[in-house]
Task: inverse folding
């Protein structure tokens, strides 16, 4: 089954062709990073307009790279939630038109489910059940993936997401957008023990996260150094901040893994590209004899292929939609039914 899949939830326009949920035939992506860099973050209205400008040409490019024609497409999958509402609407409306004109099923895909499914593309042997930590600019969730379309959130952030915290600290340090990658690179030359940063507890649920206190502590440290004219060891602050985030993510996730009894742990989302977090999870899973699945860097960020991967399993579960499909800025990944 060949699925034309569309992703436009933030600042990446992506159209891919995926076969049977596991094989990427093509993945065409138009990035807006350089455009939004001058603003220090994504401007929703600009992002939406750029999606409109790019999406039709990307669809043609995806078909060409896959060496197929429109008549070879069996279904169209699209991110319908969550995300910047104007951006998501562009993808949804394009996908509805494409599915209608081609006479094929329309498959709505939750963006976070797509991130989880990126691991299916990287690891053909991976099958549910398993535990997945989703860490991105807007989301931090521990998910029990009981089946391809049956998932339960075990823990999540009470405030800021891990990725948003990385980006905010990087921006205040004067690093270019997106800041997470730049901060990770800078941290390689730092001493993580130089700055003492807090590891907050989120509340009653031991699997929940809270990053606002950590982010505020780092920002206060930076501003204080500026005010008193103190030289800041930027690489060491980056290393200390990365270590603090990892010390929140890794123990809670490993606790959830123990609670479920699973021996398979996946990590997904843009923050999964962070070298410190990847290394810490590898070390901890090896200690308990668990398998670790982390996508290659190309599949950590937003892409169309992950939507096609999850779209295949949503189709098998009967989760299709008609022309009434709408876009949503927020929506839980649990119990998706339209």
Result:
């Amino acid at each position: 089954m060949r699925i034309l899949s569309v992703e436009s939830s933030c600042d990446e326009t992506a159209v891919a062709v995926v076969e049977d949920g596991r094989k990427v035939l093509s993945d065409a992506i138009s990035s807006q990073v350089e455009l939004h860099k001058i603003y220090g973050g994504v401007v929703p209205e600009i992002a939406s307009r750029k999606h409109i400008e790019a999406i039709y040409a990307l669809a043609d490019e995806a078909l060409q790279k896959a060496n197929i024609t429109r008549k070879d497409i069996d279904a169209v999958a699209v991110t319908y939630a969550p995300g910047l509402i104007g951006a998501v609407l562009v993808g949804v409306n394009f996908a509805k038109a494409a599915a209608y004109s081609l006479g094929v099923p329309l498959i709505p895909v939750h963006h976070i489910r797509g991130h989880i499914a990126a691991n299916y593309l990287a690891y053909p042997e991976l099958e549910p059940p398993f535990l997945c930590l989703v860490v991105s600019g807007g989301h931090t969730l521990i998910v029990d993936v009981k089946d391809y379309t049956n998932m339960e959130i075990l823990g999540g952030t009470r405030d800021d997401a891990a990725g948003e915290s990385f980006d905010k600290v990087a921006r205040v340090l004067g690093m270019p957008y997106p800041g997470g990658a730049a901060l990770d690179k800078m941290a390689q030359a730092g001493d993580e023990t130089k700055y003492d940063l807090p590891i907050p507890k989120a509340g009653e649920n031991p699997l929940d996260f809270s990053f606002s206190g950590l982010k505020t502590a780092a920002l206060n440290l930076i501003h204080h150094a500026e005010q008193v004219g103190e030289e800041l060891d930027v690489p060491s602050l980056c290393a200390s901040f990365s270590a603090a985030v990892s010390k929140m993510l890794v123990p809670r996730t490993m606790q959830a893994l123990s609670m479920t009894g699973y021996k398979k742990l996946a990590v997904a989302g843009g923050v999964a590209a962070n070298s410190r977090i990847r290394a810490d999870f590898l070390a901890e899973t090896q200690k308990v004899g668990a398998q670790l699945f982390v996508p290659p860097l190309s599949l950590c960020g937003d892409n169309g292929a992950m939507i096609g991967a999850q779209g295949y399993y949503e189709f098998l579960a009967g989760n299709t939609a008609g022309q009434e499909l709408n876009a949503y800025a927020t929506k839980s990944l649990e119990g998706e039914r339209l």
